[in-house]
Write a structure and sequence with these properties.
The protein is of the alpha+beta class. It contains 2 helices and 10 strands; from the N terminus they run αββββββββββα. The chain has a single domain, classed as Sandwich (Jelly Rolls). It has a 5-stranded antiparallel sheet. Strands 6-5-8 form a 3-stranded antiparallel sheet, with no helix packed on it. Strands 3-10 form a two-stranded antiparallel sheet.
């Protein structure tokens, strides 16, 4: 049995704080070939996750907030926001599911936030994510400005 407790979440969050990307995964699945990918995602507000979608192969993805506050945003093909939710277990907003072929991004709103993510497998880095051309690439340096723009549009 793998127990997800305060010690595990705190330890992962502490490591994410020291990570250059300001986020860190802990995988529960045994290997990339597993048909169900399960992981903890610890993240800080100064991380940027480029909007992306999972298609060809199509994959459903779900997020559940275990600690902190996390914004999940869906977009149309031009980058306009179509839906969003602030995951915050203290407010009764526990999780969400993203349909295949849906542009989405995750924005951390509170230090030490941790999500439990479930996604269809297997994982192949070459085809897992299709990144949005209308958003900055992760290492371009303007990702946090993109996040700020999204937060402003949503009044957060």
């Amino acid at each position: 049995m793998i127990k997800i407790d305060v010690q595990m979440i705190s330890g992962l969050a502490d490591k994410a704080l020291l990570s250059p990307r300001r986020r860190l995964n802990f995988n529960f699945h045994q290997n990339d070939a597993d048909t169900l990918q399960r992981m903890l995602n610890a993240m800080e507000p100064d991380t940027y996750i480029q909007p992306h979608k999972h298609e060809l192969p199509d994959k459903t993805e779900a997020f559940f907030c275990l600690r902190g506050r996390i914004l999940v945003v869906e977009y149309d093909d031009s980058g306009a926001i179509t839906d969003h939710i602030v995951l915050d277990h203290s407010q009764g907003q526990f999780g969400c599911e993203i349909a295949p072929r849906t542009w989405h991004s995750i924005i951390c709103l509170e230090p030490g936030s941790v999500a439990y993510e479930v996604k269809d497998g297997p994982y192949d880095a070459k085809v897992d994510k299709h990144f949005a051309s209308w958003a900055p690439k992760e290492f371009e340096g303007s990702g946090l400005d993109f996040n700020k723009k999204i937060l402003h549009q949503l009044g957060l």
